[in-house]
Design brief:
The chain has 216 residues and is mainly α. The chain has eleven helices and no strands.
């Protein structure tokens, strides 16, 4: 449900999952349940709620995909709370961890995409563009529309200008064939904003309206 962008359902399911895991005493899946719940709350604009969920999850010690998911959510939460430097450093650490586990699947987690947005907030455009091109190459090889659309969107943010607008138009076209409505909404809004910045205000209204409807 989270991957499709169905945040209300994802939040409800995850709260039930956390409660069931805690009651059963099975600790293995608890970090991932907390981590994804925090991501849902961030997408809904609740950084304080995400922070509280992650604090409840504890530090964790296992060197597993569950722990990596928790570290990723903590890093993205730092970005959302305005700590771009700390968030980027933690995301790069997550990336090194993913590499050590042999995971280069861009559809899993999305640490590069979050890191790129953090790098742009820090004014580090060259590194953001390098990482964004790497993400796009991996996404094209993997072939999942959701990951490809997200990679095109963040590369567009890193490039800007006409090239960026072209990337966003491609992202919207790709995501129309994906079940992920949240990523489609983001791409539509970024496309509308790019068209408005290019003084194409009439053209910007349609993607902005579609993005708003999906966000609602």
């Amino acid at each position: 449900a989270f991957d499709r962008g169905d945040l209300s359902r994802a939040g409800a399911d995850l709260r039930q999952a956390v409660e069931a895991l805690e009651q059963s005493g099975f600790a293995g899946g608890v970090p991932t349940a907390h981590a994804i719940l925090a991501r849902v709350l961030l997408e809904q604009g609740d950084a304080n709620g995400a922070t509280a969920v992650l604090e409840r999850a504890g530090a964790g010690t296992s060197d597993t995909v569950h722990q990596t998911s928790l570290l990723l959510s903590r890093a993205i939460t730092r970005l959302a709370r305005g700590d771009a430097r700390g968030g980027v450093d933690e995301l790069l650490a997550v990336g090194r961890r993913e590499e050590s586990l042999g995971n280069r699947n861009p559809a899993m987690g999305g640490w590069r995409s979050a890191c790129i947005e953090g790098l742009l907030a820090l004014g580090e455009q060259p590194e953001a563009r390098r990482l964004a091109r790497e993400e796009l190459e991996l996404a094209r090889a993997w072939g999942a529309p959701s990951a490809l659309g997200r990679a095109l969107r963040v590369l567009a943010l890193a490039e800007g200008g006409r090239d960026g607008t072209d990337r966003l138009e491609e992202a919207v076209g790709v995501l129309e064939h994906s079940p992920n409505r949240l990523e489609e909404a983001k791409a539509l809004v970024e496309l509308g904003a790019a068209l408005r910045r290019a003084n194409r205000r009439g053209d910007s209204r349609e993607p902005l309206q579609r993005g708003l409807e999906l966000a609602d």
